[in-house]
Amino acid sequence: MERIFEVDPWQIVTHQLDRKHKRLQESMTSIGNGYMGMRGVFEEDYSGDSLPGIYLGGVWYPDKTVVGWWKNGYPDYFGKVINAINFIKTNLKIDGQAVDLGKDEVTAFKLALDMHNGVLTRQFIVTKNNKQVQVTIERFVSIVQKELCALRYTVENLASEAVEIEISSMIDADVQNEDANYGEQFWQVIEQSDAADDTYLVGKTMPNDFGVPRFSVGVQIDHQTTMMADTGLQEAHQVGQRFKQQLAPKTQLNFEKRAVVVTSRDYSELDLVPNMQRIKQVVAQQSYQQLLAAQTNQWAKRWQMADVVIAGDDSAQQGIRFNLFQLFSTFYGEDERLNIGPKGFTGEKYGGATYWDTEGFAMPLYLSLADPKVSLNLLKYRHNQLSGAEHNARQQGLKGALYPMVTFDGIENHNEWEITFEEIHRNGTIAYAIYNYTRYTGDETYLLNEGIEVLTEIARFWADRVHFSQRAQRYMIHGVTGPNEYENNINNNWYTNLLAQWTLSYTIETLKKVSDNKKADLRLSDAELSQWQAIIEKMYLPQDEQLGIFLQQDGFLDKDIQPVSAIPADQRPINQHWSWDKILRSPYIKQADVLQGIWYFMDRFSAAEKKRNFDFYEPLTVHESSLSAAVHAILAADLHYEDKAVEMYARTARLDLDNYNNDTDDGLHITSMTGSWLAIVQGFAGMRISDEGQLSFKPFLPKKWTAYEFHINFRGRLLKISVTADRTDIKLLKGDRLAIQVNDASMMLE
Ligand code: BGC
């Protein structure tokens, strides 16, 4: 655990140039706009340790799988979003000497990420040639004009003599990924220009052997400054402009760099240059102040709908805002072809690909905090990839559709067998998200049109993947890995079987409502439907009568069951200390598994069932997936285990800010950032939505807090919920009257 930033409600701020924690600093000062994003790397060359990372959503490259490719059905490649062409690179020289914070001593250092406006600022005073100069660099990626990244330099001469300031503003295609099987160059430069008023570079991802489309990316830079353009700079892989100015004592200069980034995802390769020139012209109509004002205004709108205010605990306040800020910087639903990588634009791990995290953990948050079209775009993403999911099922010799664990285009991209072949529970969550969206919004349009196509194919997969045990006279699912990845190749994972059964019955229920034409399109026979019905009725869901719990899998109770508290502290986390074999044999649970299923269907289990399962499984859970804590916080709150709920909340809220798992240096845990919001809203405030769309709350106030307040967007209304020790206020800010329940009492919001 490490806290390197100061506690502040709206900023991530430090006054230390902390070279030891440079990567950690970079992760936490990441910014993005859904289309692109970057770690908080410095603009100028930095000779110390750093993890440069600028990423463009959906611009990826297939990497050869390392193991297993000789086995039938194995994915051919492992996809990764690659490091983009570096367009923020801007080197600074003072009296001919390069500024390099890897070596230079600086004073008055400040690094601040303003979460209210989405602006990253760095300031320092550096001495070169015995002259002191103050440098301030501001940058933002625009959430108004997605192709724009704007940088503003203010350089002030604090010395009593003139200094020469030189700025080289570059576009550099010579970049690498740390986490890749190849050490090759990703980008082939196909065109570049160093003309002063038309500086650009177009690169194309290198060819691959897998038939995956190559991406072309164009970057144009434009400068607004009083500095004199000195010369164009051109080398292999990079292009730019150099500016110089003699700066009189006690004066300052401003330098602005605007990078416009377009990709072949939006324009054909031949149209990249004209389009980036066009966007450059559009942006050139506005001053930096205007661009920034538009950015601030747009962020203000997001916050108005989404902010959570916590009184009495500034660190909790900073935690939740940081999580919301980073989530919205990763995805705000503008583009249905994009999704939410577990590390977003903040690191290389998980390759920027889409996981079940989106539907399982991010969808409930976006449903409440953004316009429904944001969540709808997440659903459309999967609908558009149905043929890829069908391909995955075929690869395994099965019918229907198997949504991938890791993907960009619907095709499974993961290179571990237990995940590719076995973690099929993800298919259930894709179906669950359709149900969740429909229940939340009350809008059945997607369900009855695209949704039913997805559900039918997922149902077909389950119906083919189960087998009938003659001995038990039950349908079973063998050879799986549940959400708890600390068990592989198990039989009858309760959660997986439950989701398979539920998907079949939800699909049958939905089919009753779809049009005859649609039904005909789905080519369902009576025999197929009655087979589904038989599976629903005879699905085996392992449980132990004596303990009154659902069994995570067959044989779980035969393990040497010892609580996590029995593991010596110096052996935690077990995934960094134990062999994989020892972990698999142990009873320890990585993340919610049975409890994940209970969370999905909260209302369908009695309080006693929830309690027995929580009391049994939570003490065996090591929470070594960042997705774990939120589910436990919500269930603990539901069971009135308030201290446990708060403990679990703390784990999710500042996971990255306090580097809880000692791994934030390689990026933020974006998809689990939803956890703190879920813990507050579904946990502390007890928000639920019934199948009939009844919204209800059962709030409590954590002891350390004096109040909390949040907004939710529900069926066209905007509500503000404020909780203090002795009262709960719910205000209808926008929309029609609404009947809700608070602590089981019905009331009408006018
Ligand atoms: C978790 C998975 C998750 C993945 C990406 C893993 O550690 O066990 O459930 O999908 O991380 O966040």
UniProtKB/TrEMBL annotation:
> Which Gene3D superfamilies does the entry link to?
1.50.10.10, Glycoside hydrolase, family 65, N-terminal domain, Maltose phosphorylase, domain 3
Span of domain Glycoside hydrolase family 65 N-terminal: 14-265
Signal sequence range: none
Superkingdom in the source lineage: Bacteria
Q: Which residues form the Glycoside hydrolase family 65 central catalytic domain?
A: 321-677
InterPro entries this protein is in?
Answer: 6-hairpin_glycosidase_sf, 6hp_glycosidase-like_sf, Gal_mutarotase_sf_dom, GH65_N, Glyco_hydro_65_C, Glyco_hydro_65_M, Glyco_hydro_65_N, Malt_Pase/Glycosyl_Hdrlase
Residues forming the Glycoside hydrolase family 65 C-terminal domain are 687-746
PANTHER family from the UniProt entry:
GLYCOSYL HYDROLASE-RELATED, MALTOSE PHOSPHORYLASE
Family to which this protein belongs: Belongs to the glycosyl hydrolase 65 family.
Q: What is this protein called?
A: Maltose phosphorylase
Source species = Latilactobacillus curvatus (Lactobacillus curvatus)
Q: Which gene encodes it?
A: mapB
